[in-house]
Amino acid sequence: MAFFEIKALQKQFGGLVAIRDLNMSIEQGEIVVLIGPNGAGKTTLFNVITGVYVPKRGQILFKGRNLVGMGPDKICRRGIARTFQIVKPFHTLTVLDNTKVAAFCRIKSHEKATQTSIGILQFLGLEDKAHIPAEHLTLTQKKKLELARALATQPQFLLLDETLAGLNATEIESMIETVRKIREEKGVTILAVEHVMRAVMKISDRVVVIDQGHKIAEGPPEEVVRNPEVIKAYLGEEYGHT
Amino acid sequence: MGGAKVTKGRWRAKEPSKVHCTERYEVAYVIGFIEATISGILMGGLYGFIAVSLSLIFGVAKIVNFAHGALFMVAMFLVYWILVLLKVDPYLSSLIAAGFLFFFGYFFQRLFIEPILRREKETAPLTVILLTSGLMMIIENVALLLFGADYRTVKTGYTGKVWEIAGLFIAQPRMIGFVLSLVLILLLELYLRKTNLGRAIRATSQDREAARLMGIDDYRVYKITFGVGGTMLGFAAAFLVPFYFVHPAVGELFVLKSFVIVVLGGLGSITGAFLAGIIVGIIESLGAQFINSALVESLIFIIFIGCLVVKPTGLLGKQRE
Amino acid sequence: MSWNRTFPAVAVSVAVLFPFVMRDPYFLHAAITVLLFAFLASSWNIIGGLAGQHSFGHSVFFGIGAYVSTILFIYWNVPPFLGMIVGGIIAAIASIGIGYPCFKLRGPYFALSTLAFTEIFRIIATTTEQVGPVDFKGAAGILIPFRPGNSFVNFQFAEKAYYYYIILAMLILILFIHNWIEKSRWGLYLAAIRDNEDAARSIGINARRFKILALMISAFFGAMAGTFYAQFFLYIEPILFSSALSIEILLIAIVGGAGTLMGPFLGSLILTPISELTRTYLGGTYAGVQLIIYGGVLVAVMMFAPQGIIPPLAKRYRKLFERRA
To answer: Does residue B86 form part of some domain?
Structure first.
């Protein structure tokens, strides 16, 4: 039984087919990165996996159980967490409370939740901002908070949606390290959508390429990048032969 | 309603010996039924027309304008006073009313709505509903103070007159109003599709940010939209005054119903709003045959809530998930 | 912080001593009205402020409370205090039926659907007369039979001070409950739902369940206010279900600061006297003027202080009116 598997997934909005016959599988402990041109359906895929959208066809199997039809809250409790491409912090709550409310997913008591949350904030370097309302953070800090919140639910499978967008070079390096540590220290399997190719090459065990809702290539990063189909999808017909 | 006990208004094949009084009851009942349906369709068309004016504002500016009914009332009084004081027929003065309401709507938006739109990215429905409710209260009660609480009606050359078509009696003002509304709605559709400003309006309603990036001044679009909405109210008032009553609170009867119709018909769809208006008109008219007319209103609201839950995009809605 | 302890103690003491200092029944009546609307707005504050669901349908629960306890009192001699609880429970159950469809909607659609419910209830109340043994009297409204003297069983008192202390106790009760919810795990859930429902769901919060629970609590206390109203004013009518009342409740909570503990009280302190004064001096011939002023207040607040009048002031006196941060 694969850790995470998608079978024959189809999602459309009226006449627009966003995801077309998608098949994918992920082993436990992998870091898989999803790439593809804009509008390829990557965020839609995340939304389908986490229960925000219901697919027309197909199955999403997480540790053998089909997630299709479950709401986002139930899917989270099953062990899948996500971050959002456009950050969605709880702006009136402090950084600590943002994390705590996620920690309550697994922990009932206030003290333990606070302890766990502070631990996560330390892991991400946010602990000195713990009592600041989330709306006063910079974008980078908000992205880290997004990550902290997701981690607080103690997921086994983490979906990262363009966590690196808008970060400078140093921040990107730091984030790559953090993601690596999440896999090493917490044993979390990761599926990330990314556009920053340098990071993709560095962090991924495997890359899956999506174009127009369909998987067109997958494999180790160095291979995929040289795949003519992939180049064609990004740059157009003329560059396909390079 | 003796006919109701006989049959539910359906023809039943009868043996020749039994065809006498009951048959005439049934015929009368069926005719009454059909006339009620037609009347409902005609009135519904006018409801739909008013709802379309609201749909524009709601769909483009995303504003829940509770003062819409008050604006309509202003238009009605304008047409009324022009008729009573200047003896100008409503259908003629409709142009004046339409023009006046255009500016009224335009400046209404500029003074009250725009500051809020400029201030907040997403206009909290709470703020707008309370704001427009307050404006409605002010406008209505100023009218109440100025004009008093009497229910006024007018008598024009065609008030209360009917046409007889195929044995059915159809109220003239309703028919005329319906046809004119239809024409105006078709013109509106053409305007939105063919002219630049129309396209700008449609673009802004779909994506405010994208429209701005393309150089469209969305604030101007909102003002124009409110103006066009006002214009439609001006015409609608002229169509209604010949057979409806005029009263400072008349707008309240139309406001919530218009919202119901807009949502039922689907946000963003003009034909949807018009059709939904007709459906509501039919429900109202036929429902009144069987149950208390006030309860029919609550029936409409119940259908509204049911529709929102089952298909939030409405009958012909174009909003995405 | 000592401020946090002494101020409420002082405030409560003042409130308790008020009827002894202010003997004039007119002012006592006004104070009771202020506290009643503070209580009612506080009940809305649970669903509207803490959970961030701006329901325009609160008058429904108020009306249910008023009618249930009154009917039980008139026809079955149920003591109104008991009827209050029954009304609360019925309102809470009704809130499930209202919340279930409405909470599927967002933004203006949610507001409109809650508004539609007030109309449904108002129309039904206006058109319902005799149902079995019970005469709801439709639009005419129901007069609560007058029972002389001071009686807790009948929940009627000749001396207004009794009413004052009861509503004061109710207000303190609901403020305690608000505070307890806000500081609990559940309060964090509601705040998360309020700030971003999608994100809240993504971290495992069953938004629908918590919204409905919050609504049930709001409904229960809203109904309690209805019973008090019935027993104080001794007359109820379908207008109690109207959207106008819902809007009034909202405005009080908003002006004082939705979501804050003392917001509804402060909002009522400001708005209710205005409403009462204009009604007294301008009611009757100039009844329209009262509404014009009221409308003006609505417009002014929404255009210039949509977050409420109190929160900006409160930012200066943060220690006194601390919102959970």
So the answer is: yes
